[in-house]
Amino acid sequence: MENIVTDICIIGAGPVGLFAVFEAGLLKMRCHLVDALPQVGGQLSEIYPQKPIYDIPGYPEVKAQDLVDRLMEQIAPFHPTFTLGERVDSVEKQTDGSFILTTNEKTEIACQVIVIAGGLGCFEPRKPEIEHLEEFEGKGVVYMVKNPELFRDRRIVLAGGGDSALDWTLFLSNVAKEVTLVHRGETFRGAPDSAEKVFELAHQGKINLLLKSNVVAINGNGHLNTVSISGKDNAITTLTADHLIPLFGLTPKLGPIADWGLSIDKSAISVNTEDYSTNVERIFAIGDINTYPGKLKLILCGFHEAALMAQSAFKYVYPNQKLSFKYTTVNGVNAF
Amino acid sequence: MIQFTIEDRNGERQSIEAPDDMNLNLMEVLKASEYDILATCGGMALCATCHVQVLQGNDLLPQASDMELDMLDTLPNATNHSRLACQLRISEAMQGSIFQIAGELQ
């Protein structure tokens, strides 16, 4: 647990969140960034670090990771601080109008202004459509294996056909009492090596491998007890199981931000294009996470939004000062 | 112009025409036609919210890339007829196809 005090808390350390530090810094506002990912750069670093981007002004071509590195260099004079690998869970408005944000790791950040630059949102496990699935979450249904020991001598059903389904099936076959892997296809696209091992274990009778099958129902009294699986010919088999682990990859979700009273339109935050403010005073949204008539999800549009946001956020950070606009060419970049 | 049919979430079908010389993909056409899809990632095959089932004409479509197949693989409700609309460029191959909207809405 840590307590941080800053002027602006930026949620999301992708390119737009990073550039917001620069625009805020020119106006002498300090920034702290929070990101659920363990590194800065957002999608650029996480998903396509080596891919080229062609529409950044001044760069005919730039690799995504290089752009992130250059942005980090550009904002260095303003000494931003970071909380990485944590997700902001709650926001509390104080009587003076400022906020205290709390992350899932209980880090507290006190700030005057919140800027949401969350991109696509947080990547959360994709959930299959099974009735009552959510009732059993934490009561037998889990979406990731954090501590394999919890599954020792238990009966486990895994669902999915990707690498993580294969890997955990292999791993848990040595730990659990009984492992069943349910996959809707007949083949696996994951690492051929792992797929081969899974077929081999099934052949040896060490795991149950149900292909062309889907989990269709779950039941239990307070805790998961049975998993019903529809197989070839649509025949239903019901297995006794202590745990169901659906492994269907990650999907971007707005996450806890959806509960902050912000005006949301199709998983994006509605903003006023004058300053990219939301319907909640002192909360701004910039970059891919916002929406307005004519919105384009482009990094360069996010940069523009960051500049206008900073001009407007100034009045909350320095309520007694008048803002006069100055070019960096005239004024330079004054580190602090 | 290429003509194909969209089946919405209520099972209603509508014929759509789209130009094949504007480098459009099916996700963009669905959004422009105000169909109820999220398309969160904007066409990068990252979110799979533009998932469609190809009810007719699946064999004629260009093969899915590894990236698209990897993403489809993660979908609990995908079938052999599943595609990501964002990866399907409007082309002659789509003439007469029927697409059913299947992507998640949350």
What would you say this structure looks like, in words?
Chain A has 336 residues and is α/β, with parallel strands linked by helices. In chain A, the strands form seven sheets. Chain A has a five-stranded parallel beta sheet with strand order 6-3-2-10-22, with helices on one face. In chain A, a hairpin with a 4-residue loop joins strand 8 and strand 9. The mean pLDDT of chain A is 94. Chain B has two helices and five strands. Chain B is globular. The interface between A and B is medium-sized, with 28 and 21 residues.
Order of helices and strands of chain A: EEHEHEEHEEEEEEEHEHEEEEEEEEEEHH
Q: Supply the CATH class of the largest domain in chain A.
A: Alpha Beta
CATH superfamily of chain B: Beta-grasp domain
| Total DSSP helices of chain B | 2
Radius of gyration computed on alpha carbons of chain A: 24 Å
| Rounded mean pLDDT score of chain A | 94
Largest interface: A-B, 28 and 21 residues
CATH architecture of the largest domain in chain A: 3-Layer(bba) Sandwich
Summarize the entry for a quick read.
With about 325 residues, chain A is an alpha/beta fold. In chain A, about 20% of the residues lie in helices and about 30% in strands. Chain B starts with a strand and ends in a 5-residue tail after the last strand.
Key descriptive features of the protein:
heterodimer, A: 336 residues, alpha/beta, FAD/NAD(P)-binding domain, five-stranded parallel sheet, 23 strands, B: 106 residues, alpha+beta, Ubiquitin-like (UB roll), five-stranded mixed sheet, 2 helices, 5 strands, globular
